[in-house]
Design brief:
Helices cover 77% and strands 0% of the residues. It is an all-alpha fold and 516 residues long.
Length: 516
């Protein structure tokens, strides 16, 4: 097999694995109402997604470090094995508790697939080609966001929900088989030393941090607690202590999970900060676009499921074009222009109102997508260009880790802002509406009523108008808050090194002596 053919097959296997992990969340979300009706446990609904997020985020930096110590192929295949095993177990689950536990296993495996795919791309392609390949990765995520809901709905309707998870088995095995035969790499002579204490303190600090986003809320009866409750304050204190302990451990570890000295490299520190703040704004705000479309504009649930398609297509296009320009323009220029585009998109979204139509919303999403497209692959390519082979997995995973944390926190923070604005708006609405009984008003005056066509059609016109105004104002507040986070990221993007990607190294992994 020629080197070029081997490289093409390796990329095919990596893209297949990425497609599986990227589509999993959207397919599962589409099937969850059916799963709940089969297994029960409505009170545990959010945990199916939360536990996946917890285990994925916790395992990303650990897999990155292990890949640097033991080799990309071995660790990637272990991650794929865990992902497939978790998928099969999820399909066999007979209760919500079992499903949650198995989703945790699946999430651990998913923590290896995305960052290691990006790392391997950085290994086998020279710097001037990495931008194009990272653009291809962006295209895979765009395709997954479009195909995921459709595939989830088809499987649920024509087969059964178990196949939502079983479908990962043949494709996961195929991707693993391709990489097992085509991916070659040099093994290091240095005996690996695993930073177990660092891995433990990192995982514990991440879990405690993300548990805050799971439990913090405004209604204890719904299984969450107020931000001033002892439970949430205790988690915040625990997270701070564990983070400090992790830093203390990493400074003294011989092979730290996240080498702190990497952040002395300006490209890595700026990329991590910009990735974090941009993810808080982008992913947090994007979560609420379907809510605005369905609750304010009044599109059907099926249309709301595909409302993000224009944005995803613009991300695919701009990430592909941006990948071709990475070696022609300086890093700072690309980052500043991209973050400016994201800021413009969020500003336009913050100006939406009850009079906004679907075409105006589509234009806003396209502007946001054009800004987002080049940013994520650029962060990865820039970081990989700043370190050597032996630290590429760790550095790539570190930036992915901060981006993932930012997205998770963004959804929670902006969700809390929306809830607070909704509660305040509904209280004010109750004092202004007259001639409607309190019982009838309480039945209709909530955001959930706007998402159900059968209830929406029964709402008195003045109530419908009032609740729609409240929801519009609440979501506008979310977009405005997201804009503030992105502006912070834009500020830090001016500190990126003003250089083009280098061409100093020759990429490619030598065959292992035992397999050449």
């Amino acid at each position: 097999m020629s080197e070029q053919t081997r490289k093409r097959w390796t990329v095919t296997g990596l893209m297949l694995g990425l497609l599986l992990s990227a589509m999993d969340q959207t397919i599962t979300a589409t099937a969850m109402p059916t799963i709940i009706s089969s297994l029960g446990g409505m009170s545990l609904y959010s945990w199916v997604f939360s536990v996946y997020m917890l285990t994925t985020t916790s395992s990303i930096p650990i897999f990155g470090k292990l890949a640097d110590l033991y080799g990309r192929r071995k660790i990637y295949l272990i991650g794929m094995g865990l992902f497939v095993l978790g998928s099969v177990l999820c399909g066999l689950a007979s209760s919500m508790i079992q499903l949650i536990v198995y989703r945790g296993i699946q999430g651990i495996g998913a923590g290896a697939l995305m960052p290691l795919a990006m790392t391997i791309i950085g290994d086998i392609f020279p710097p001037h080609q990495r931008g194009k390949m990272q653009g291809l990765i962006g295209a895979v995520f765009g395709i997954s966001s479009i195909a995921g809901p459709a595939l989830g709905g088809f499987i649920t309707e024509h087969l059964n929900w178990h196949w939502v998870f079983f479908v990962n088995l043949p494709f996961g095995i195929l991707a693993a088989g391709i990489l097992a035969f085509t991916l070659r790499e040099t093994k290091g002579d240095k005996k690996p030393v695993i930073d177990w204490l660092g891995a433990f303190t990192l995982t514990a600090s991440i879990i405690s941090l993300l548990m805050i986003t799971v439990f913090a809320g405004s209604h204890e009866s719904s299984g969450s607690y107020s931000w001033t409750s002892p439970q949430v304050i205790g988690l915040i204190i625990l997270s701070i202590i564990l983070t400090g302990l992790f830093i203390f451990v990493e400074k003294r570890a011989s092979e730290p999970i996240i080498p702190l000295h990497l952040f002395k490299i300006r490209v890595i520190s700026v990329s991590s900060i910009v990735g974090f703040f941009s993810a808080v704004g982008m992913f947090g705000a994007v979560t609420f676009i379907p809510l605005f479309a369905q609750g304010v504009i009044g599109v059907s649930p099926s249309v709301a499921g595909y409302i993000l398609t224009p944005m995803m297509l613009s991300i695919v296009a701009s990430s592909t074009i941006g990948g071709m320009l990475f070696t022609r323009f300086k890093l700072r220029s690309i980052m500043v222009v991209s973050m400016t585009g994201v800021s413009a998109g969020l500003f336009l979204l913050s100006q939406l109102s009850v009079n906004t139509n679907i075409w105006a919303l589509t234009l806003c999403m396209i502007v946001l997508g054009v800004g987002m497209g080049p940013l994520m692959p650029m962060l990865t390519v820039a970081v990989q260009d700043a370190v050597g082979f032996n630290q590429r997995g760790t550095a790539t995973s570190a930036v992915t880790f901060f981006r993932t944390i930012g997205g998770a926190l963004g959804v929670s923070i902006l969700g809390a802002i929306m809830t607070a604005r909704m509660n305040e708006g509904l209280k004010s609405l109750g004092t202004t509406l007259t001639g409607i009984s309190p019982e009838k008003l309480s039945m209709f005056s909530n955001a959930q009523s706007l998402l159900r066509p059968e209830i929406r059609s029964q709402m008195p016109p003045e109530v419908l108008e009032g609740v729609t105004q409240v929801l519009s104002g609440a979501v506008n507040g979310v977009f405005a808050a997201g804009l503030l986070f992105v502006i912070v990221g834009l500020f830090f993007s001016f500190f990126m090194e003003n250089k083009k990607l280098g061409h100093k190294e020759t990429a490619g992994m030598k065959p292992e002596p035992s397999e050449s």
